[in-house]
Amino acid sequence: MGMVTRRSIGCLLVMAAVAGANGARDNRPEPEPYRVDFIEETGIDLILLDVEVYDTEGLPMRGLTLSDFTLKINGKVRTLYSVDDLCTCSDPTADETLVVEEAELPPEQVTSLPPVPAEPMLYILYLNFGQLDQGGRFNALAEAERWVREVKQPGERVQIMAWTSVKGLQELTEVTDSKEELLATLDAARTDPVLFDPFPTQRALRQDECEACYDRCVGLDTLSMRSCIKSCQVKCRGFAREEYSHGSWSMGALQRLLYRLEQVRGRKTVLYFFQNDALYPARLFSGVSDTDVRDLNQEIEQVGADAVLSRTTIAAAFSGSDANAAGINVGANLADYSGGSYNRAAHLLPAVTGEAGRGCRCIYRIGVEPPPLRRNDLYHAAVFVHDRRIPRGIRLQHLTRFDRWLREAQAVLRSPEDVTDVPLAASLHPIGLKKGRWEVAVRVAMEAEGLLLLPAAGGKTGAWETGALMYRDPGVDPVELLAHSRLTVETGAVAGSYIVHERVLDGLKPGEWHLGAFIRDRNARTFGGGSLEMTLPEPGEAGLSTPVPFRSGQPWIRTALPDMTDKAKQVAGATRSTEILSAALPLPQRPVRRGDGLEFRTWVCSPKKGKSVDVVRFVARDGEPIFRFDTAKPPRAGSCAELSDPVDSRFLPPGEYVYHIRFSPEVAPEALTAEQVFILE
């Protein structure tokens, strides 16, 4: 489907379909009822922090206890709950004493002490190809290969991960101790087109284009120069915002890795190969201020807190050739917040990668009750040993059960193409307009047969979590929806219905809205996710919403999707319905069966003033219209109304089609055109 772009996907979920391809299910037995519960767990929670302790001479400090430590969170001393000694360093004094004693004994009586068992260490070679240009890519792969050949010890466990903005987070190898497998994977990565990301290689072109724009303003008259400079500022600001978005996605992928590592026992070290990360993207382009474009401080602090939670240190392996590159500050902060190390130039790579996770490590695990701050807050922590501060800018975070779920959901939705285990579909459907704000139905649908059902008393049971995150721009007007659900099927019954999690949101501003859908099967521990966009037109102006496709004629069960954005709105419940409802299910993006009822709904807004114009709707295949719908007039001036176009798929051959809707050509056709793709088997 090469023609499907991010906009043309619209309200189609990028994930697998909820529709089965093996015939209708209208005659199946009625599914059993199920219960939806939202659970908020409470109890005593601790923040656990691993710290590595050295004395003033850089030697590990052994034998410390709770009374030796002081911990300040946000500048205030907190009472420690526990301190566990995880030091794996032997005492050199004890070793010397042992040698003397052994020398005085007959050879047959000499016994050696058992070695101190080192805590298992997992190494992750993380190649951020989304932040490496051609030179940085070469340096990173060369250093990773050198590390495998010369630094890796027999039996050490290693995994290679990679990220690109096109393909997201990718697992290039499973955890292995095989040097041959690791080297073969790194060698293949040199020429794998999937691992090439055009964004970092074009940064210099974007910067040159920004400068060239200002150069063209020189010599113009005053009025023209002002207009020219303003135009260049808009252009350069757009470039800077692209850099911020790219950097945010990059940090989000690293977060996803840390979430995974939280489930892995023992300590972990990430060798993070990067180059183009920028703490302040605005400073890369002339005429753009820090107030115009967000910095990445918050995202990097969050990564540091996630690293602490997962017992991971980050060795920031800067692979660029420019000693003044903006990425060095990012690496320094990642290392500081996680207890790792960093380098300032590519020729120093062997030092940072060779020492990461090596040598004697005296680590102590500190347990402390979280301060009474708002949930999800990041804490700044300082650790003191004998009144001497450990030089680290530690970041901590206290997470409830819901916070952990939400964190996983946010990570999944940054790269929805990575999670396709649980098939689902979703839609945003505008259903009303009041005082210039929109009322929109959010639906997340799944098929009960896609769940892993485990034996239970009298039948089988399945459990899952469903949610959605909705926002205009990243961090703007977020809406968090979450349901914890359970399905019980008695012996002999069939769980063949579709389950639709639904919530109606009101007061949404016009503009571009983004939705991320998320399902986790608790029994199988598998995930499904996806994202879509919806354009809500501005009332009083000529505009179209994104067409919403539906499939009719399917039995379904509807249940609530609680709003977690405001605790006052938190609700739970279920409404059971097995009616055959038209326009009830979001249309999936895999092929649907020929003969299924299809319908496209679009809101049309007319301008307050101007000539009334026709709205044209048609279905095309291979770029050519194959049939049109009856002419429909837009609503009266200054108002909005919904148009509904049913499609009888029985008379269409299998293939890919595009539903188009547009105002007549004389009214800004580029701005007033929308389309939607659908596929028939």
Brief write-up:
Helix 9 links the parallel strand 10 and strand 11 (341-342). This protein folds into 3 domains: 6-41 and 403-586, Sandwich (Immunoglobulin-like), CATH 2.60.40.10; 43-89 and 360-399, Sandwich (Immunoglobulin-like); 123-359, 3-Layer(aba) Sandwich (Rossmann fold). Helix 3 packs antiparallel against helix 4 (179-189) and helix 7 runs parallel beside helix 8.
Please tell me about this protein's structure.
- The protein is α+β, with helices and mostly antiparallel strands and 681 residues long.
- The protein folds into 3 domains: 6-41 and 403-586, Immunoglobulins (Immunoglobulin-like); 43-89 and 360-399, Immunoglobulin-like, CATH 2.60.40; 123-359, von Willebrand factor, type A domain (Rossmann fold, 3-Layer(aba) Sandwich), CATH 3.40.50.
- It contains 11 helices and 35 strands.
- A hairpin with a 3-residue loop joins strand 7 (157-164) and strand 8 (168-171).
- The protein is globular, with a radius of gyration of 29 Å.
- The two termini are 14 Å apart.
Mean pLDDT equals 77
- State the low-pLDDT regions, or none: 1-44, 93-118, 567-583
Please identify which CATH superfamily of the largest domain we are dealing with.
Answer: von Willebrand factor, type A domain
Can you tell me the number of structural domains?
A: 3
What is the CATH architecture assignment of the largest domain? 3-Layer(aba) Sandwich
The largest β sheet comes out as: 6 strands, antiparallel
- Count of DSSP-assigned helices: 11
Text of the CATH class of the largest domain: Alpha Beta
Coarse morphology: globular
End-to-end span in angstroms?
Answer: 14 Å
Secondary structure class reads alpha+beta
The percentage helix is 10-25%
Radius of gyration: 29 Å
Strand content: 25-35%
According to CATH, the fold-level topology of the largest domain is Rossmann fold
Strand runs, count: 35
